[in-house]
Predict the 3D structure of the following.
Amino acid sequence: MTLAVRLKKKLPHFTLDVEFSCPAGKLLAVTGPSGSGKTTVLRMLAGLDDPDAGRIALGDEVWRDTASGARVCARRRGVGLVFQEYSLFPHMTLAQNVAYATTDTAFAAHLLELFGIAHLAASRPGTMSGGERQRGALCQALARRPKALLLDEPFSALDAATRASLRGELLAVRERFAIPIVHVTHDLAEAALLGDAVVTINRGRIDRDWFGRQLALYREERAALLARFDDAPPAILAAASDDGRRPVLRSPKPVPKEERPCDASS
């Protein structure tokens, strides 16, 4: 089933006016500058906010149609929603958090195994790392067997290694659950790596050129970085000066060319 979206809503500084679709088993990456309306779109898909005009449908199931007056409330839409902030209840164990969204405890346990956090089933969120909590939040969202999965920058607060790992797991979710996934992110690399298609929202409108402009800026920044530090790494902050009083900047000594390891081209 395809998630088909046409939305219009007046916001304080512009009018949001977008149209897009996402088939089952595909991931639509939604990117764009901050304050452009991306989270508002997700909230309307989830039923937490209402458009002034438009239509949201998953296959033949119409969730909202302002023309006909059709409206399905948030809890009946059957969507999984994951935010940047971890949505786990702090007083519950991880297993209880995931099972809270379903009566199928065996499926909840299976999800913990699938995401590699079954060993944390008895742990509370406060004792877990950010990546573990976000895996738990994804399990919680999937435990209800959602018809669609909506993600609002779920990896942005995580370190690079954890983000990379979770990206791989999200691709596995796409293959395994075969539902539409709408993933909002500011990370251009993440959008490019994960998205079967990429939509950019800029001041409430689809901007087909924004991603290319940002990519050009990224290339310029990368070229400037390599031009400055290709042969000599930047100065690093030592733990303390030799006398132990305060940190100092130290530049690593460049390795003479004759002592450098040969690369694959030599």
In short: Residues 2-78+146-214 form a domain with the Rossmann fold fold (CATH 3.40.50.300). The chain has eight helices and 13 strands.
